[in-house]
Amino acid sequence: MSRCVALLGGSFDPVHAGHVALAELFARLLHPDQLRIVPAGRPWQKSNLEASDADRVKMLELAFMRAGFPVTIDLQEIERNGATYTIDTLRAVRAELGQEASIVFLMGADQLQKLDTWRDWRALFEVANIGVAARPGFDLAVDKLPPAVAQELAPRLCTPSEVRAAPHGRVCVAHTLAVDISATQVRAAIRHGNNANGLVAPVVLDYIQQHNLYKS
Ligand SMILES: Nc1ncnc2c1ncn2[C@@H]1O[C@H](COP(=O)(O)OP(=O)(O)OP(=O)(O)O)[C@@H](O)[C@H]1O
Ligand SMILES: O=C(O)c1ccc[n+]([C@@H]2O[C@H](COP(=O)([O-])O)[C@@H](O)[C@H]2O)c1
Fold this sequence. Notes:
alpha/beta
């Protein structure tokens, strides 16, 4: 079987239990040879990130330190100049891994709902597969997606094993994830001095408190 590399991109400001659950779910569904976490350098659809690149990376290392599957933090988007576009990242990974490898970009339902706003979004399918997980508050039903996204997706839908076997162009959907946590909610809880236990890993919460993050 060809190599399979799954990538989870995000702002991770900070990494929270929803991110870890999403990565764990696809580690189980796809059995990738490698799961890369890719912190965005300059996510162009978000206003300013609050934590520094170094703090976001450190929190990722802590959050995934004890994951029961091999995780690598890929720094390419932080090291690249200019706005962060996933298509650039996936082309770089394709150039690195060759034409046979299965590349799977993971995302939550909120990102699928706006996939047609991403840079060169149709080209993503020429380079990678997509693995989408449910997220509370964001409908995964095809008729609730923007028509262009639904149309692009419909012929590509298949099982995780089929995605694992295909270099690119396939999509699998995991309906079972139901973690109602966002980084926005974590930042707000910390800013207001509310309990953030359960939203982020205890080691990450310690780091946030020790470094006085998300207070102002
Ligand atoms: N609770 C969740 N369930 C499923 N997917 C999630 C969840 N939280 C984040 N994701 C997915 O993880 C990726 C990175 O998300 P991101 O770092 O922007 O976190 P976020 O919680 O959405 O952040 P913010 O609240 O700052 O917008 C995206 O693909 C997003 O859809
Ligand atoms: O390529 C794009 O145009 C694009 C637009 C929006 C989001 N993304 C990617 O989607 C991932 C999740 O984004 P975010 O903003 O929810 O952290 C992250 O890897 C972003 O770089 C990518």
